[in-house]
Specification:
With 724 residues, the chain is an all-alpha fold. The chain folds into three domains: 309 residues, no CATH class; 194 residues, Methane Monooxygenase Hydroxylase, Chain G, domain 1 (Up-down Bundle), CATH 1.20.58; 167 residues, no CATH class. 73% of the residues lie in helices and 0% in strands. The chain starts with 17 loop residues before the first helix and ends with a helix.
Length: 724
C-alpha cells in the first residue's frame, strides 16, 4: 500500500523540521495503525455485545498492541505469538486470585513479583523482546484494574472476552502489516538516510575543526555511528524482506548504496586523520573548508532523498548530474591523497540519487544474485531458547534487571496497599514498569518525563470527563491514547507518557474501577512509583563496566572474522556475502560499545569504565576496518601482481593480524605509530605497496589488540582490588 504524495516541497523549511520528520516516521505510523485498529474493533464489540464485554475485550487488544512493533509483514505473526498464549494466563491468575478473598492480597502480590520477573526476562531477546515482557506485566496490572469477579463463571467470561480482544488485535496487526508493508520499508529507509545525512554533517564539521574541538566532535561522530548502525539494521530488516516489485527492489538498491556510502565516508575521514602520520602536511584551511562544503552538499542531497521518501514527492530533475559537476569543482580543492576516496564516495552518492530519481526495474538484475544472502542480514523473528539460557547467570544484566524490577514491584504493591487515600497499587506498579529501564541512564531520562506527562495527562482527563463523554467516545479516546503512546514511546517519551496517562485513566473509568477521579492522588502515586524506580535502579545494578568483557570479546571475534574473510583464500565471488556480513558485525559490535560508553557517562563516576580507552578502541577498530576493506577491494580488482605472489603475503599477514588480535598481554605503550591508507586502491598496485599496506593493517591490529587487552584487564583489576 503506497501513501499518496504530500505536496510540501513548496515550503523548504519543512524539510528540516525534526518534528515533522518524526511524525512521518514508521514508529508514529505504526502507532496510528494500532490506534485505528483499537478504535474500530472496540466500538464494533461495544455495538455488538455492550460496554462490559467491550471493556474486557479492549484490555486484551491493548495488551497485544504493545507487542505490535514495526516488523516485516511475513514475520508479524511470529513476532506477537508469545502474547497469544501467555497474556490470558496472566490475566486468569489475577481473576481467580480474587475468588479467595482471605488470601487474595498475598496471592496477587506473589503474581506481581513473579509476573514482573518473567516479563522482564524478555529483554534477553534484545529490543524486540522488551515490549513483549512489558505487555505481560501490564496484563497483570490491567487485570488488577478490573472489578473482582463474583464467581468462577464471571472470571472465565472476562478471560474469554479478553482472549477475543487479543485475537482481534492480532488479526489487525497482521492485516495492517501487510497493507503498510511498502510504506514501512520506505519510512525505515528514509530514517536511515536521514541519519546518514546527520553523520556526514558531523563529519564535515570535524574535517574543518582543529584541536580540542576536533576531538570533541570525534566523540559525537562515534556516537552518531552507533545510532546509524541501529537504523541501518532496522532498514535491512524491512527493506531486504523478499523485495519483489520494482519499487521494493529500488528501495533495496538505495539501501545498498547508502551502506556503501557510509563505508566510503568512514574511509575518507580516516584517510584525512592519518595524513600527519604519513609525513604529509595536514590539509590547509581552504582544503578543509572545501571538504566540509562538499560533505554539506552530500548531506543536502540525502535530505532531499529522505524527504521524497517520507512524502512520496519527486526529486528535482537531474540531481545526479548536478552533483557530478559539483564534485569536479571540489576535486581541485581537496588534498590529492583524498581524491580517489572522494571519487568513490561520489560514485555511491550518484548511484543512490539515480535510483531515487527513476522508477522501473533497473536494479532487478543487479540485485538478483545477492537476494539469496539477504536473510542472513535481517534480524531473526524466531524466539530461540539460547538467549534465555545465557541470561540465567548471576552476572547477567538480564537476570539482574528482572530481579530488580520484581523487587521494586513488590515494594510498590505493598506501599500502595497502605496509603491513606484510595488504594490504586496498580498505578504505582504501572509507573515502576514504564520508568525502570535496564540501565540507570534511561531510568533517569524517563523519571522526570513520566512525572510531567502524568500531570498533563491527569489535567486532560479531568477536562475530558467533565464533558461526560458517551461510552463509544471514551473508547475512541482510549484508542487515540493507545496509538499516541505506542507511536511515541521510542521517539518522544514525554508525549508517550502523557498519552499513556490518558489511556490508563480512561481504561479504569470504562472498567468502573476508577471511582471518583482524584488528580493529586494519582500524581502522588506517580511520584511514589518514580521514586521507587529510581531508588531500586541501584539494587543489583548492571553497571556498563560489567558488560565490557562480553562487548570486547564480541568486537575481537568480529574483527578476527572480518580479517579472515578479507585476506583469506576463499573464492571472492562466493565469499562476498560473508565479507559484508562480517563488516556489519564489526559495525554492530562497535555500536554496542559506543552506546554502552554513552550510558556509562550517566553512571556514578566511581563505577564508570575507562571511557578514553573505549574511545581509542573504537577509533582503532574503524581504522582496521577501513584498511582490511581496502585490501579486500584490491583483491577484487584487476591487478598486475599475480596471485602466486600475493597469496603468501596475504596469508603471512593474516597470521600476524590474527595473533595480534588474540594477544592479551602486550601493553599499549609498545604499539607502533598508526598509519592508514585509503580504502580505494589502484588496480595495478605493486608488491611493495601491498606489503606496506599489509604491514599497516598488522600494526593497527597489534595496537587494537593491546587496547582490547588493556580494556579487558581493567575490570579484572577492579575486582582484585575490591577483594583485598
Amino acid at each position: 500500500m503506497q501513501m499518496p504524495p504530500l505536496n510540501l516541497e513548496a515550503i523548504p523549511s519543512l524539510r528540516h523540521s525534526v518534528w515533522l520528520r518524526m511524525l512521518l516516521g514508521h514508529r508514529v505510523l505504526n502507532g496510528l495503525s494500532v490506534g485505528l485498529g483499537l478504535a474500530v474493533m472496540s466500538v464494533l464489540v461495544y455495538l455488538a455485545a455492550g460496554p462490559i464485554v467491550a471493556a474486557s475485550a479492549s484490555v486484551g487488544m491493548l495488551i497485544l498492541s504493545i507487542g505490535d512493533q514495526v516488523s516485516p509483514a511475513r514475520g508479524k505473526l511470529r513476532q506477537i505469538a508469545p502474547l497469544l498464549w501467555m497474556a490470558a494466563p496472566m490475566t486468569a491468575a489475577v481473576q481467580f486470585a480474587h475468588l479467595v478473598p482471605d488470601h487474595s492480597t498475598a496471592v496477587i502480590g506473589a503474581l506481581v513479583g513473579i509476573g514482573g520477573f518473567i516479563g522482564m526476562l524478555g529483554t534477553a531477546w534484545g529490543l524486540r523482546g522488551g515490549p513483549l515482557g512489558f505487555a505481560l506485566l501490564l496484563a497483570i496490572v490491567f487485570a488488577m484494574s478490573t472489578p473482582p469477579p463474583i464467581d468462577w463463571r464471571e472470571a472465565l467470561t472476562h478471560i474469554a472476552w479478553f482472549q477475543v480482544g487479543v485475537l482481534l488485535s492480532a488479526a489487525w496487526a497482521v492485516f495492517s502489516a501487510r497493507m503498510l508493508n511498502l510504506r514501512f520499508r520506505t519510512q525505515a529507509l528514509a530514517d536511515a538516510i536521514n541519519e546518514l545525512a546527520v553523520m556526514l554533517r558531523q563529519q564535515g564539521a570535524r574535517l574543518a575543526a582543529t584541536g580540542d574541538r576536533r576531538e570533541n566532535q570525534l566523540r559525537a561522530l562515534l556516537g552518531e555511528q552507533a545510532t546509524l548502525a541501529d537504523k541501518l539494521q532496522t532498514a535491512r530488516d524491512l527493506v531486504l524482506d523478499l523485495p519483489a516489485t520494482p519499487r521494493e527492489l529500488r528501495l533495496t538498491g538505495m539501501l545498498v548504496a547508502a551502506i556503501r556510502l557510509r563505508e566510503q565516508a568512514l574511509t575518507c575521514e580516516l584517510e584525512l586523520d592519518m595524513q600527519p602520520a604519513r609525513g604529509r602536511a595536514p590539509p590547509t584551511v581552504a582544503q578543509a573548508q572545501a571538504l566540509e562544503s562538499l560533505w554539506g552538499d552530500f548531506s543536502a542531497h540525502l535530505d532531499r532523498v529522505c524527504w521524497a521518501l517520507f512524502t512520496g514527492g519527486e526529486l528535482p530533475a537531474r540531481l545526479a548530474e548536478a552533483l557530478t559537476a559539483r564534485t569536479v569543482d571540489a576535486q581541485r580543492a581537496v588534498p590529492p591523497a583524498l581524491r580517489s576516496a572522494v571519487d568513490a564516495m561520489c560514485a555511491e552518492m550518484q548511484s543512490l540519487l539515480r535510483l531515487a530519481e527513476h522508477g522501473g526495474d533497473e536494479p532487478r538484475f543487479a540485485l538478483a544474485e545477492q537476494a539469496r544472502d539477504w536473510p542472513r542480514f535481517r534480524t531473526s523473528m524466531r524466539w530461540p531458547i539460547a538467549p534465555l539460557k545465557r541470561a540465567m547467570s548471576g552476572h547477567s544484566p538480564v537476570l539482574r534487571y528482572a530481579l530488580r524490577v520484581s523487587i521494586a514491584l513488590l515494594a510498590g504493591y505493598n506501599i500502595g496497599l497502605h496509603l491513606p487515600w484510595a488504594a490504586h497499587p496498580q498505578w504505582i506498579l504501572l509507573t515502576i514498569a514504564v520508568v525502570m529501564r535496564t540501565n540507570i541512564a534511561q531510568t533517569l531520562e524517563r523519571r522526570n518525563q513520566r512525572l510531567i506527562g502524568t500531570l498533563i495527562g491527569c489535567v486532560l482527563v479531568t477536562a475530558l470527563l467533565s464533558l461526560k463523554p458517551s461510552v463509544p467516545a471514551q473508547f475512541l479516546i482510549l484508542a487515540i491514547g493507545a496509538g499516541i503512546a505506542h507511536g511515541f514511546a521510542q521517539v518522544r517519551y514525554l508525549v508517550a507518557a502523557t498519552a499513556a496517562t490518558v489511556l490508563a485513566l480512561i481504561q479504569g473509568h470504562l472498567l468502573h474501577t476508577a471511582g471518583e477521579f482524584a488528580l493529586f492522588e494519582r500524581l502522588a502515586d506517580t511520584l511514589i512509583g518514580t521514586a521507587l524506580a529510581w531508588a531500586f535502579s541501584y539494587v543489583l545494578p548492571a553497571w556498563e563496566r560489567r558488560q565490557l568483557p562480553a562487548l570486547l570479546k564480541r568486537l575481537r571475534t568480529a574483527q578476527l572474522q572480518h580479517a579472515k574473510v578479507a585476506l583469506g583464500g576463499a573464492e571472492l565471488s562466493t565469499a562476498n556475502a560473508d565479507w559484508r556480513l562480517a563488516r556489519r558485525e564489526v559495525h554492530d559490535s562497535l555500536a554496542a560499545i559506543g552506546l554502552a560508553a554513552q550510558r556509562a557517562q550517566r553512571e556514578p563516576r566511581a563505577v564508570q569504565p575507562p571511557l578514553d580507552l573505549l574511545e581509542r578502541v573504537q577509533l582503532r577498530s574503524y581504522r582496521l576496518l577501513a584498511q582490511l576493506g581496502g585490501l579486500r577491494t584490491w583483491r577484487e580488482q584487476p591487478r598486475a601482481l599475480p596471485d602466486a605472489e600475493a597469496a603468501p603475503m596475504l596469508a603471512a599477514h593474516l597470521a600476524r593480524i590474527t595473533a595480534a588480535l588474540e594477544s592479551s598481554s602486550k601493553p599499549a605503550a609498545s604499539v607502533a605509530p598508526i598509519e592508514a591508507r585509503t580504502e580505494t586502491i589502484s588496480g595495478h598496485e605493486e608488491a611493495a605497496q601491498l606489503r606496506q599496506r599489509l604491514r599497516d593493517a598488522a600494526d593497527e591490529a597489534r595496537a587494537l589488540g593491546a587496547d582490547l587487552a588493556a580494556a579487558q584487564a581493567w575490570e579484572a583489576a577492579r575486582l582484585q582490588e575490591k577483594q583485598r
